[in-house]
């Protein structure tokens, strides 16, 4: 198993009970998550040694978040302390025609986005990690977050480690004209990356690559090999999601490596909580890729991990490798006694 560092902000999730809206509810439940938290937690459950590279406020909120990370099995040696605020978002669960709604509050004022780290921290983290995971959400924050992200990625590459980058473009964070603003930063990270998570929309809209494909699958087959060749990327993975009329979702994963696409059989399932499912898919691919598993097994395993993540409350995937293998074999479902 590998030692993996995940760079990212710890977010405080505040959600309304059930399917109520903020205007209806008079109470909120809180938890801690974030892409880096989710990926590191999932990989820890798969047997890897994981660390989070982040900054938390030096107060009781930061203490609570730190305790939560430890409970998830995530190493906290590279969590910096400073500042006063933690990034927060409010979640309203959708139902039927009403989609789930995420509302962020002053993320730019959080400790992660305002407190610089010592320059030597990046080499220290890179020395301890065989691989590092990065998310495009951090690129949307501000110049400090972007700079620190790129410094760590370069340090990992210098030491021969693997760089994993999830494009994860969020329109609400980049704002109007966001694709043009995001493009140079995405290109810089893609040039450093060995494994990338993206789909055809990232290539079309953010990277500005043309395609004559008539549908999403044709565009994916056209654009992903171009991205891999242009940026020298070893492997690229991602998913296509369809929301069905009966409130179930259908997820289809792909994995492109060594010039060949592998696709998982589409999986249709009921949804309890979909937030964080993409991180579960990424974790499944990373786990199998770092072990050198067969690419078809990797995409099947990752799709099963993502489907399982829809069945638990909260952002953070909780499935063990044994749980995913059972789901992959379609043997889960009955009571285990």
Commentary on this structure:
By secondary structure, the protein is α/β, with parallel strands linked by helices. The protein contains 13 helices and 14 strands. The protein has helices at 35-45, 60-71, 111-114, 121-128, 136-139, 143-158, 171-174, 178-192, 200-206, 216-231, 277-291, 295-309, 321-328, and strands at residues 3-7, 11-15, 29-33, 49-56, 79-81, 87-92, 101-105, 131-135, 162-166, 195-197, 235-243, 249-257, 260-263, 267-269. Strands 1, 4, 5, 8, 9, 10, 11, 12, 13 and 14 form a ten-stranded mixed sheet that branches. It has a four-stranded mixed sheet with strand order 3-2-6-7. It is globular. The model has no long low-confidence stretch (mean pLDDT 92).
Short account of what is shown:
The chain is of the alpha/beta class. It has 13 helices and 14 strands.
Attribute tags:
about 325 residues, globular, about 40% helix, four-stranded mixed β-sheet, alpha/beta, single chain, ten-stranded mixed β-sheet
């Amino acid at each position: 198993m590998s030692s993996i560092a995940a760079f990212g902000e710890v977010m405080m999730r505040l959600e309304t009970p059930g399917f109520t809206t903020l205007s209806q509810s008079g109470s909120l439940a809180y938890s801690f998550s974030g892409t880096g938290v989710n990926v590191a937690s999932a990989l820890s459950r798969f047997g890897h040694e994981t660390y989070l590279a982040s900054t938390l406020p030096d107060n009781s909120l930061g203490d609570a978040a730190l305790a939560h990370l430890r409970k998830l099995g995530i190493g906290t040696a590279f969590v910096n302390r400073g500042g006063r605020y933690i990034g927060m978002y409010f979640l309203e669960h959708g139902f039927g025609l009403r989609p789930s709604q995420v509302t962020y509050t002053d993320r730019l004022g959080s400790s992660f986005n305002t407190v610089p780290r010592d320059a030597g921290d990046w080499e220290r983290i890179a020395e301890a990690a065989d691989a590092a995971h990065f998310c495009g959400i951090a690129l949307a924050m501000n110049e400090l977050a972007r700079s620190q992200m790129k410094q760590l990625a370069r340090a990992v590459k210098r030491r021969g480690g693997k760089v994993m980058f999830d494009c994860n473009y969020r329109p609400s964070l980049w704002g109007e004209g966001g694709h043009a603003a995001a493009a140079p930063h995405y290109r810089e990270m893609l040039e450093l990356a060995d494994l990338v998570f993206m789909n055809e929309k990232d290539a079309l809209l953010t990277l500005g690559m043309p395609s004559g494909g008539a549908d999403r699958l044709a565009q994916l087959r056209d654009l992903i090999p171009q991205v891999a060749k242009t940026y020298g990327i070893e492997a690229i993975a991602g998913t296509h999601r369809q929301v069905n009329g009966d409130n179930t979702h259908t997820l289809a994963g792909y994995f492109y490596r060594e010039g060949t696409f592998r696709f998982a059989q589409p999986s249709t399932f009921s949804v309890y909580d979909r937030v964080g499912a993409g991180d579960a898919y990424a974790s499944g691919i990373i786990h199998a890729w770092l072990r050198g598993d067969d690419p078809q097994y990797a995409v099947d395993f990752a799709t099963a991990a993502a489907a399982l993540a829809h069945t638990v409350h909260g952002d953070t995937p909780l499935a063990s490798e044994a749980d995913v293998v059972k789901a992959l074999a379609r043997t889960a479902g009955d009571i285990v006694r």
